[in-house]
Fold:
Amino acid sequence: MPANAKHPKKSIQQLYTEGMQEVSKIISHGSAAQREVALQTLDDLTAMMLAHTIETVQGRTALLTGLIAELTQVIEAVNVQPPYMGAVKAVTKIVDSARSRLAAEKKKLLPPNA
Structure:
């Protein structure tokens, strides 16, 4: 049996969540010095997860923005040539989908009640 069969692969998010839950137990039951370290650790872990989430969304946003810009250039360049009208429609559909996805990614950056 493979070594990892006993320990299924967990996502980074799952590992962070589990770690933060365990640190929270120390906050509830530890000594004053232990609570202080645990609180700082919890703050640090939360900040790291938030920074990672923002970087991920920003990366997706940059990719989608680049895709939209490049495909828009193609649409503008070939839109006047009749043999390419089918391709223009298909590329326009992709751009519209990318714009929708971009809006969704940007929405993730905002607080829930913003």
